[in-house]
Every structure is written in structure tokens, then in C-alpha cells.
Amino acid sequence: MQNLNVNSERYTLNMGPQHPSTHGVLRIVADFDGETCVSADPQIGYLHRGMEKLLESRTYVQGMPYTDRLDYLAGVNNNLPYALAVEKLLGVEIPERASLLRMLSCEIMRLASYMVGIGIYIMDLGAVSAVFYPYQQREYALEVMSALCGARMTQGYIRFGGVQADWNEQCDAALQKLLDEFPPFLEMYHKLVDENEIFLHRTKGVGVVTAEQAKAYGLTGANLRASGVSYDLRRDAPYCLYDRFKFKVPVQQAGDCHARYVQRMEECEVIYQLIKDIYAALKETEGGEIMGKVPKVLRVPAGEAYAQTENPKGIMGCMVASDGKTNPLRVHFRRPSFDNIAIYSELMPGHKMADLVTIIASFDIVLGEIDA
Predict the structure, then answer these.
(1) What are the structural domain ranges in the chain?
(2) Each residue of 308-339: pLDDT tens digit?
(3) What is the helix (H) or strand (E) element at residue 11, kind and residue range?
(4) Residues 6 or more apart in contact with residue 184 via CB below 8 angstroms
(5) Is the pTM of the predicted complex or chain greater than 0.85?
(6) 343: closest CA among 217, 229, 255, 227?
(7) Cα distances (Å, whole numbers) of residue 277 to 244, 271, 371
(8) What's the topology of domain 60-363?
(9) Taking residues 165-180, what's their average pLDDT?
């Protein structure tokens, strides 16, 4: 057989900042040798909205709805670190029922966020029909939040000192629908995806992140745990009332794109059980207060405070500095997706062009918080 001497071509390709396959306006400037990536430079800033400066130019109460727009797939989860940081400065005591409502709403939206992440992941690999099933479960979760606070995506449910509204009968019905429908969905989705040859070929051994790399780059959340690092703030540095509940923290060892899918699927089972446990605890506090004693005009004592929570994308931190006025002096967020994509420049070289799409999808990022 004749040997053909084929010279490959080196070229630069812009992936994004159009939305498809980049999960937002992310731009990857990648150099390729034929189909193989030799360098990748993730570039952000196309969605920058000055969120932190917006919060600094408004009162504490006016600023809360802006936090919903950080990770817009789990709005209420982003209310929480901002509220916790301000409450540290205020020294306010949060009622038990309010803490449980915060946790329950956050876990419901964590599940909703994971449904988007898993569905879009599979769709990015070409299985378009597989996105609709998790979106149906997400719809059930959004119906619970709509019954609870009147909003589906940007909830603004958490208030300084507590929450906006108490649980009601409509919430019971909506939550029961979610609890009934989720187990059969999970079983069906495992059958649909787990043994699919194309899915396995596209994800196994692709985008491997070792535990050392994950820690060095500051990865958090499911992306960290998929690389063999067992760390979850809800268990290891509990906030609200998470220390009352025992739950498993799944961990994978492979650290590849397949492990990140398996990690989120296993965490969905844990979230489901946690929702049931928190809901049971909430029923025992029927009639309890949902707001602590907070002044109507919020003047936060001078000082600095930091709070962090385990968000669907990873650890979300919030630093608030006050000079005693009605507006914060400084607000800064530690955004998990921002840190999670830092590893792309090391991770992508050596992979084929199609693998880059797989890697981006497996990290479940959202550009709304990256470009805060």
C-alpha cells in the first residue's frame, strides 16, 4: 500500500462567542493542527454587566433581586450567600423555619439546575431528544417556586432575616408532583443514556482532570468531586441547618467527561432525598416565624463579612464591606464557573475539535456569573 505524505495545516479557530455549544457568550481562541487542538485561550467579558457595582450603588434591599441574575438557572441559590454575608454584619438570628425554607428552595433549584446541565450536555453531543426529558422535571421544580413566591426563574425569595413567603397548600401539591415524577424519570434516563455507545465513546477518557489539577485550579462543586476530591460545603462547612441532615457526597475517580456526567446523576439522587428530609423537617415547624428581627431601614454596621454556599455550579462566595450606610461600600462574588473554566487552556490541547464541545458541556458553566 502506498504511503501518502500528508501535511496538516495549522490554523486558528474562534469558537464563540455565539451561544451554541459554548453555554453563553464564551469565546475559545483555539489553534489546531488539522483536527487536533494545540492551544486554547478562553476569553470572557462579552456579557459583563457590572453586577457588583450595581449592588454598591443601591440599598441592600434593592440589590437582592440582582443576585438572581448571576446564575440565572438557580436564582434563589445566589440570594443566599449575599444574605448570609449581610446577616453576619447585622448579627441577626434567623428563625428555624426560615432556614429550612431557604434550604428547601435551594435544593429544589439545585435539582432544576442539574436538569438543565445534564440535558444540555447530552444535546451538545448530538442527542437532541434527550434534552426534553430533564426539562420536564425542571418544569415541576419551577412550579414549586412559582407557588412559593410567585416567580419561576428569578425568584428573589430570600430576604435579610428570613424569606419572602411561607409554604402553602399549592406548594404541597407542586412538590408532590416533583417527588412522584422524578424517580421514574431517573430510571428512564439511565436506560436512555448510560449505555449509549456514542455517548460513552465521546466522553470516556476525554478531558481528564486529576485531583491535583482540580485543586490547583480551584475547581469546586460536581467538577471537583468528579476528580476524586470529596468536598461539599453543606457537609464540610455547613451553613443554615445543613448540619442537622446526613447525606451522601458521591465521588468519582476518573475525572473525565463521563465521570462529570455520572457525578451529577448520582448527586441528583442525593438532592431528591435531601428535599424529602428537609420537607419533613419543615412540616414539624408549622406556624413558625419566617422572618427575624430586622430594621425596616437597613443600615448595616461598619465592617466586612464573607459567606459561601454550595451552589449548583460550585462554591459561590460573597464578600460585603460596609461603612454604616444604607448601601454596601463594596461587594465581591466568588463565582464558581469563573474558576472552573480556568483549566480549559491546559485541558483542551491534544483533543479533537469535537471534544472541545464535550469538555465545555461537561463542566456545566453559566456565563451569567462568569461575567458578573
Answers:
(1) 60-363
(2) 999 999 999 999 999 999 999 999 999 999 99
(3) strand 10-15
(4) none
(5) yes
(6) 217
(7) 10, 10, 35
(8) Cytochrome-c3 Hydrogenase; chain B (1.10.645)
(9) 98
